[in-house]
Structures are given as structure tokens and as C-alpha cells.
Amino acid sequence: xxxxxxxxxxxxxxxxxxxxxxxxxxxxxxxxxxxxxxxxxxxxxxxxxxxxxxxxxxxxxxxxxxxxxxxxxxxxxxxxxxxxxxxxxxxxxxxxxxxxxxxxxxxxxxxxxxxxxxxxxxxxxxxxxxxxxxxxxxxxxxxxxxxxxxxxxxxxxxxxxxxxxxxxxxxxxxxxxxxxxxxxxxxxxxxxxxxxxxxxxxxxxxxxxxxxxxxxxxxxxxxxxxxxxxxxxxxxxxxxxxxxxxxxxxxxxxxxxxxxxxxxxxxxxxxxxxxxxxxxxxxxxxxxxxxxxxxxxxxx
Length: 300
What we know:
By secondary structure, the protein is an alpha/beta fold.
């Protein structure tokens, strides 16, 4: 049984889903990469989320990625598996991932982008009714709720344990944290570049996409944030995160495809992305190599 409130402190690792050149899964590479990442002190590992290309995977593929992740982690940290799409598909993922050994589920917003509060609550209730695993909701894109709405979600779904912010509105998020208190474990999830703000308002942990190719930098961000070392945190963000995010901003989809390209540059088997995510241009890859060199120098 995971002691979640004491366990989720610092940084959650986000592995990418490795693909072969024909765009089929490369589960051996997934397992190899996650085993390497799990050698660093992440507080949890989260496969099959946005960086894990959840929306390009079938239910069966997503479950197999989680199974490979659980094998690779080998009990060193809990595995929080991402699920989404429609309620039936999310339920099928939840059941399969629970059997595969996941410890919790990260629920991405449902497929319908205009769902009312009641519809999202019903979506969460249906998932919770079909798994014993605790849930974390990922508030991203259109799924933006106020504190009163989140409080009602908590009332209707007792197994809702964590809330991952993907909005970046720190004023609103801090208000939500103040009103709901320790009912939820609060995660910062819009990007490594927002780590200073998330830690400043008291988030328990951040999720880190750079963890897939530069875990040492991710852990350094978390350690500085948890001890309130703002100078160190500011330096790390300016030196490492901002240059990478400037490249990611060049195209939609680069938050995934550019990270997998960074893995390849760092010698980690990532492979291509599935459409509609874009393949980085040659110029962007050349610029990325220069940035990745900074990260590799940090790791050494």
C-alpha cells in the first residue's frame, strides 16, 4: 500500500513511448529507458500520458506499455498510468493497467471538449467504479474548473486523490489549494518551466517531461524547489529549461516529438512519433543538438 502523501514529493518522471521505424511499439526500448530513469529518485513514474502518446495508442498497447514500465521500475517507485478517451475505453485501460501492476491512474479529460461539470463528474465516477486504484485528474486544455467544482468532484469520487494542473494559472490554483487543503495531493504539470511557481505555492510535486532524457536535471529542479532554493531553481530554469522550451514553441506537437528527438540525441531509443504529431525539421534538430549538449554536460 503506497503512503501517497509522504511518497509524492519532488518530481514525477514521464517516460516517452518508444516506437520502431514502422510506428509499432518498441516495448524493449520502453523497458530499457524506464529502468534507466528509475535509477534516479523520482517519487513516481507516469507512462502513457501526454508525452507517452496516450492518444495514439490502442487500449491493448497502452496496457502493454504500463506492464513494461512496471517491470522496469521493479518496485522502486509507484507507477501512475495515464488513461483517457471515452468512458468505456478509459475503463478498459484502467482494468488492464490495474492487472498490469499500476498503483494509480492519471485520468486525462474525456474526448468531448464541451462536457459540463456533471458530465466530467460522471466520467470520473464510472472509472472509479471499475477500479480500486486511486485517481488523479489532469486539468488541461478545456477541462478547467473552479474550486467549488473540484470540491464537488471530490464529494462524488472518494478515490480522487491527486489533482494535476495543466492550466498554469497559479493565482487560481493556489486559491483552489487553499480552499480544498489536503483533500487532494497537488501536482504542477504544465511544464518544467513553471517549476518555480508551482513549488512557491506549495505543490507537492511537479511532473517533468525532460526526465525522459535528462533525469539529473529534473531531480535537481525538484530538490531546489522542495528546499526553497529559489536562486538555484531560477538558474536551472534559465540555463536548461528556457532554451529547450524556446525550441518546443516553434511548432505544435513539439512538446512530444522534440522530446523524443532529444532522447535519440542523448543515445536513448525513442523512435519516431505517430501522426498527427510532427517530425522535427532538420534545422530544429540541429538547434536541439546544441541544447541537449548542455544537459549532457550537466549529467556528466
